[in-house]
Automatic annotation (TrEMBL):
InterPro entries: IolE/XylAMocC-like, TAT_signal, Xyl_isomerase-like_sf, Xyl_isomerase-like_TIM-brl. Keywords: Isomerase. Pfam families: AP_endonuc_2. Gene3D superfamilies: Divalent-metal-dependent TIM barrel enzymes (3.20.20.150). The keyword Isomerase applies. Residues 95-348 form the Xylose isomerase-like TIM barrel domain. It comes from the Bacteria. This is Sugar phosphate isomerase/epimerase. It comes from Nocardioides marinquilinus. One of its GO terms (molecular function) is isomerase activity. PANTHER family: HYDROXYPYRUVATE ISOMERASE (PTHR12110), INOSOSE DEHYDRATASE (PTHR12110:SF41).
Length: 374
């Protein structure tokens, strides 16, 4: 007797909606919803199916990956230790952060108060070696630094970039980056030029220093790329591609990485919704931060994790607060990207002190980070 072919297994309504949202075929949708798809079969977007396959009550941010960018505690790093018994300067602040549970830090420069141990500027080879001794003593790993990336490629700027990378390697970093966008422009030509420069610098950082070059972005980089002219030839219309998505497509994944600030990505979700299409019609597209990461998971080794209360009347849509005290659904975000063994979230507040001060915010926020399960 000849075996008869079986009919394709039908999708449930929920599975069909899931597949349409991610652009998956019927077979890929079935595999994703069962938690059985491999990255090769389905692609990076399948990582958004992690809620179906996640282990209950497993830490979404494992203890070794709980980090903070030191810009958050810049006030205590910069205060005079002679005026207070509280932690001040890099050594005492690193000690405090270790005691409350942080195991990673991201630097935002290497200066402190001149009266702190080590002096004002530790951004030298000697200063970096001192910082590394403190990091090792307190069981903390340095992951990256918000420094500067050359805006032009010259012998002088490359030499300065190499010096930045040298300090990073002394500190044991795996990444080196900047807190700014690759360009402040919005046209395709401007982002093409930025991509060319970042490809050069990223290859230099990796080949010469073993470092991943990354860009950190606020909401502006998620605005729409102006890649289509109007009737007069002015480049003021868009095909609906976001600037940072285009940057991902034209930079080399072997040499250029990104750090998503999850708070500012949600601000972009609130702010950057409408664009003028090539035919002049007004169009709308709502940004999904977790979906972007899921599609490019290995391009995002670093994150900034800060929270916000939803305030629809505010220009940004949010009011920044410590992690766990706002409306951003971090549990859902980290479950959807499902990169707990790759991603390194850094708590940050970049609007100054809040409540009882930056060290208290750091303690509150690592407790919230540790409580994320799924």
């Amino acid at each position: 007797m000849t075996d008869q072919p079986t009919s394709p297994r039908p999708l449930t309504d929920e599975q069909a909606r899931f597949g349409r949202r991610l652009g998956l075929s019927r077979r890929q949708t079935l595999a994703a919803s069962m938690g059985l798809a491999t990255a090769g079969a389905v692609g990076a977007a399948v990582t958004t199916a992690s809620p179906a396959s996640a282990v209950p009550n497993r830490a979404l941010v494992p203890p070794p990956r709980r980090g903070i960018i030191l810009y958050t505690v810049r006030d205590v790093i910069g205060r005079d230790p002679g005026t207070t018994d509280a932690p001040s300067g890099f050594r005492e602040v690193l000690k405090y952060l270790s005691e409350v549970g942080y195991r990673q830090v991201e630097f935002a420069g290497y200066t402190q108060h001149a009266n702190a141990v080590g002096g004002a500027d530790l951004g030298t080879t000697q200063g970096a070696r001192q910082l590394k001794r403190w990091l090792d003593a307190f069981g903390i790993v340095a992951q990256g630094n918000h420094g500067s990336v050359p805006s032009t490629i010259t012998a002088a700027t490359l030499a300065e970039f190499d010096r930045t990378c040298e300090i990073a390697t002394i500190l044991g970093m795996k990444h080196v980056g900047t807190g700014g966008d690759p360009t402040g422009g919005s046209t395709k030509a401007e982002w093409d030029a930025a991509a060319d420069r970042w490809n050069i610098l990223g290859e230099r950082a990796m080949r010469n220093h073993g470092l991943k070059l990354y860009t950190h972005n606020h909401d502006g980089a998620y605005g729409f790329l102006l890649d289509s002219p109007d009737a007069a030839g002015a480049m003021i219309r868009s095909t609906g591609v976001r600037k940072l998505e285009y940057f991902l497509s034209v930079t080399d994944p072997k040499f250029v990485w990104l750090e998503m600030d999850i708070y500012w990505a949600h601000v972009a979700q609130f702010k950057h919704t409408d664009f003028t299409a090539p035919d002049g019609a007004e169009a709308r597209n709502i940004f999904d931060p977790a979906l972007l990461v899921a599609r490019h998971a290995r391009r995002y080794p670093l994150f900034h994790a800060k929270d916000g209360n939803n305030v629809p009347t505010a220009d940004s849509g949010y009011d920044m607060v410590p992690l766990g005290q706002g409306d951003i659904d971090y549990q859902s975000f980290f479950r959807r990207i499902d990169s707990r063994n790759y991603a390194n979230p850094m708590f940050e507040m970049d609007n100054g002190t809040y409540g009882n001060g930056s060290l208290d915010n750091a303690r509150i926020s690592i407790e919230a980070m540790a409580a994320l399960k799924g």
